[in-house]
Amino acid sequence: MAYIRPDPPNGGVRAWSVVVGSFLLQMSSFGYLNTCGTFQYYYQNIMLPGKNSSQLAWITTLQIAFFFACGPAVGKLVDVYGSRPVIAPFAALAVISLGMLSLCTEYYQVLLAQGVAFGIAVSGTCLPAIVTVSQWFSTKRGLAVGVASCGSSFVGGVIFPIMVSRLVESHGFATSIRWSMVVVGITMLVGILLCDTPFPPQYKLTKLQGDEETGQRTDRKNSQEIEPDDAESVGSKSEEAELDSPVLEPETPPMNEDKNTKGLSVLLQPKALGWAGFVLGTFFFMWSFLAPFNYLPLMSVASGMSPDLAQYTLTVTNAGSMFGRVGLGAVSDKIGAFNVMCIVTTFTATSILAFWLPLSYNPSTAGIFIFGGVYGIASGGFISLIAPCVVSLANSQLENLGITFGLVCIGLAFGALVGLPAMAAVKDGAASHSFEDLIIFTGVVLAVGSACMIFARYMKGGIKFWTKV
Length: 469
Fold this sequence. Notes:
- With 469 residues, the protein is mainly α.
- 81% of the residues lie in helices and 0% in strands.
- It is built from 20 helices and no strands.
- The longest helix is centred in the N-terminal third of the chain and has 31 residues, at 141-171.
- Residues 207-261 are annotated as: Disordered.
């Protein structure tokens, strides 16, 4: 007898406690990664002044790339074993990698500890947390994922940049990393205790089905051990049943079927094209998504802002991201995740070209902070809507959501891998290392990603954009 998965609880104390656990896990994983601008400024001006922007960009690039590249493997582990057994060892790796970072003095050491080890650790803690929340909710999925993802934007992205920069000034780099390591370890421990899947993982179901099949074979064996008279009566009844039952002819396979044509038709189906458009959209968006997070503090200092004040541009951007993740996530439950995703991606690209670009010619402190807040709202919506869009494309099939979400992460990984180094090369190649070429490049790539998202939404829901998709 096959296991029938119950509907998601869609609320209740247990479901919302999972949201709290996911909030803490994302705060201490992807939230810590959001301090990339603070680290970029410190490495370039104090710790590693001999390295250019392209070289330093590889630190953040490797973190993001490993974060998403490990997605398929982590997702499959979550489907098979559940979230809690998967998160625990990666959380330990996160703490160890930060401890090693506090001892680093050379570029290659930082690259291995922060870029590789912490990137892998973040993948095994943050991605299961996102998937688990999606499995606990149905009609409130956008709101729940948005609230949980605030951990990486508001708390992680606001507290950690201020904490690290202030501790570096007063106690040095090593001490600041060790204190943040303590915070990461405690929050991850609480998150692990709260975060778990709502239904049995696949390995438990396989074991239960195996036990059930063994029991059925035993019952059949016992039923065959009957008296001869009973066997004759059973045999006569079965013969009568065979006479009364209809005869089923084998189905004739279709003639002259072109396998190549069939394969091509599958690839050109709206569902497949919708997946392709969505993955391409996430690829292009992740390519340029982190540009303001990485370069807004540097641009602020170059425009005359004090370094202390420039660090708060990240705080404002991440605070805006909180409102985008919660507010736009709640709106997506009403009008559809894909509809909101199209609006968000279009507005994000527009904010780069219409708002950030003019500030590179005529910078102002107020304008830079306003742009940071606006971009945070738009970009935060993109992050929180990825999981609901994946569920929509998967037709709400939650059993294999881990591997499905992980495969989408491949596009995000490639975008992250080529994005920051490409943007750093554009910036370093510009005259007087200005930011205009970087901003234009960022805006154009985001616009391409937005077009791909609109195409994916069209293939999923058709031309009627007022339909909830």
